[in-house]
């Protein structure tokens, strides 16, 4: 029978998962079977913590307000363990962390370390409360804006002269959106993908450790699935239906995404502990619905987030592109698709097949590791990706753009350079996160952090802080160039992607700053640029 050190109702300090920061928490429950305490943080987040991640509040001292408010001073006085040395072994870093946390309350020098942790922890709670209402407003805005924007784009692409100034676009009658057959096809497509996903072929990969240290298993059989889809398409299904029913297929997918999000929201109300993401628990229905609260919603072994992100939308994207190539030949009376259409198809196919081939790498991306699964991702995966990432191919069906051979060669070179940077940098980080002592990575310099994880500071991740985004942006440029410069619409992906990646980078920077504290500052001082060397 385990001893129960803290009682229900006790106010103690609880470690924020994945960091060395302690927050004030109230003990709600103790589960003798798992030896885990259920605690609630001041912002309402409920989590399960091990006893070793909890301390008596009396052992902590806080700095005076004036001192903690001075960022300059804070920087100069920081004694965080992560700053002290640069070591080559992540195990050393883990040892430093453990020492700092477990002994911190007794010696005065170590007290300073804990005070530094507390100092960082106080600000996010205060600002979280202040920013709450603005977050809720933003959620309402995005819930309305995202579907309206997709509709706007889909209605523009068929126009002879698509333009932002065509606003509001001529709206079709309401019944034009609804087509039971289109809904049937969307459902069949998702079920077909689900069937391929559960087939016992391909690898079973482990995700990154959850807060409890447990690792979930994922079936990563994307390569087999892409071959199965290619074979099915080869059997001669008439895909031009997709071009002629694009609006109805978009509306049907939107309906599925909304139903899925409602289901995800409802089930997240019953999830607890490590099943939950750290966001999406504000209590505001719109915000939580949009953001999603459950981290890895699963029906038995079927992982809904992983499946939606990697299968129906992503493979659907290639299928739609291919359908557009057939529609172009039909509409323009061609024997073969145009060079522009071939380039757009091949480039994006390479992107998707690469994603499926390296499916395991997605397990270390932000969406899979940290974000809850709610409307944003469900809509993103099932509507946004297949129906807006295909706009370049759709545009070319009725807006031909002739490319000379030198132009083709230049665009292909750009795509390959982008792809090389994207793949190499993603694989490097993924390999390092999976096995930091991989001998193939032993030449890379690292910065140990107080969490036990280290940061790569040479190799691709020493060039800029997001080399993978740089490669991705170069590829995006290569996808738009074949469409020419007559309209802004085929450049939409490039513009959206710059905004998305700059925003993601900022979000990731503050998340990493929270997680790694001064080790992250040191990384940022060493690697000065975010995405483009010497520019940004
Ligand atoms: N086509 C599309 O629509 C989109 C494509 N993408 C692509 O998906 C890929 C994944 O992107 P995303 O998930 O945003 O971000 P990343 O794959 O860049 O993941 C960021 C995480 O990597 C870890 N990390 C950061 N710096 C270092 C370092 N120096 N050493 C070791 N680990 C580090 C941190 O996590 P931790 O320390 O916790 O491991 C950080 O939170 C990218 O290639 C991106 O371009 C992304 C969004 C949309
Ligand atoms: C609706 C919102 C405005 C934005 C939603 C964003 C999502 C569409 C993207 C978030 C991260 C994504 C990734 C890919 C597709 C787009 C989304 C879901 C990705 C699967 C594409 C293929 C790549 O190879 C990848 C690296 C596996 C990508 C991972 C991130």
Automatic annotation (TrEMBL):
<keyword id="KW-0472">Membrane</keyword>
<feature type="domain" description="Tudor">
    <location>
        <begin position="4"/>
        <end position="62"/>
    </location>
</feature>
<feature type="region of interest" description="Disordered">
    <location>
        <begin position="52"/>
        <end position="93"/>
    </location>
</feature>
<keyword id="KW-0756">Sterol biosynthesis</keyword>
<keyword id="KW-0963">Cytoplasm</keyword>
<keyword id="KW-0539">Nucleus</keyword>
<keyword id="KW-0812">Transmembrane</keyword>
<keyword id="KW-0256">Endoplasmic reticulum</keyword>
<keyword id="KW-0444">Lipid biosynthesis</keyword>
<dbReference type="GO" id="GO:0003677">
    <property type="term" value="F:DNA binding"/>
</dbReference>
<dbReference type="GO" id="GO:0005789">
    <property type="term" value="C:endoplasmic reticulum membrane"/>
</dbReference>
<dbReference type="Pfam" id="PF09465">
    <property type="entry name" value="LBR_tudor"/>
</dbReference>
<feature type="compositionally biased region" description="Basic residues">
    <location>
        <begin position="64"/>
        <end position="77"/>
    </location>
</feature>
<keyword id="KW-0675">Receptor</keyword>
<keyword id="KW-0753">Steroid metabolism</keyword>
<feature type="transmembrane region" description="Helical">
    <location>
        <begin position="177"/>
        <end position="199"/>
    </location>
</feature>
<feature type="transmembrane region" description="Helical">
    <location>
        <begin position="403"/>
        <end position="422"/>
    </location>
</feature>
<feature type="transmembrane region" description="Helical">
    <location>
        <begin position="443"/>
        <end position="464"/>
    </location>
</feature>
<feature type="transmembrane region" description="Helical">
    <location>
        <begin position="139"/>
        <end position="157"/>
    </location>
</feature>
<dbReference type="GO" id="GO:0005637">
    <property type="term" value="C:nuclear inner membrane"/>
</dbReference>
<keyword id="KW-0153">Cholesterol metabolism</keyword>
<feature type="transmembrane region" description="Helical">
    <location>
        <begin position="249"/>
        <end position="266"/>
    </location>
</feature>
<keyword id="KW-1133">Transmembrane helix</keyword>
<keyword id="KW-1207">Sterol metabolism</keyword>
<keyword id="KW-0152">Cholesterol biosynthesis</keyword>
<keyword id="KW-0597">Phosphoprotein</keyword>
<dbReference type="InterPro" id="IPR018083">
    <property type="entry name" value="Sterol_reductase_CS"/>
</dbReference>
<comment type="pathway">
    <text>Steroid biosynthesis; cholesterol biosynthesis.</text>
</comment>
<keyword id="KW-0560">Oxidoreductase</keyword>
<feature type="transmembrane region" description="Helical">
    <location>
        <begin position="377"/>
        <end position="397"/>
    </location>
</feature>
<dbReference type="GO" id="GO:0006695">
    <property type="term" value="P:cholesterol biosynthetic process"/>
</dbReference>
<keyword id="KW-0752">Steroid biosynthesis</keyword>
<dbReference type="InterPro" id="IPR002999">
    <property type="entry name" value="Tudor"/>
</dbReference>
<protein>
    <recommendedName>
        <fullName>Delta(14)-sterol reductase LBR</fullName>
        <ecNumber>1.3.1.70</ecNumber>
    </recommendedName>
</protein>
<keyword id="KW-0238">DNA-binding</keyword>
<dbReference type="InterPro" id="IPR001171">
    <property type="entry name" value="ERG24_DHCR-like"/>
</dbReference>
<dbReference type="Pfam" id="PF01222">
    <property type="entry name" value="ERG4_ERG24"/>
</dbReference>
<keyword id="KW-0443">Lipid metabolism</keyword>
<dbReference type="InterPro" id="IPR019023">
    <property type="entry name" value="Lamin-B_rcpt_of_tudor"/>
</dbReference>
<comment type="similarity">
    <text>Belongs to the ERG4/ERG24 family.</text>
</comment>
<dbReference type="GO" id="GO:0050613">
    <property type="term" value="F:Delta14-sterol reductase activity"/>
</dbReference>
<feature type="transmembrane region" description="Helical">
    <location>
        <begin position="476"/>
        <end position="502"/>
    </location>
</feature>
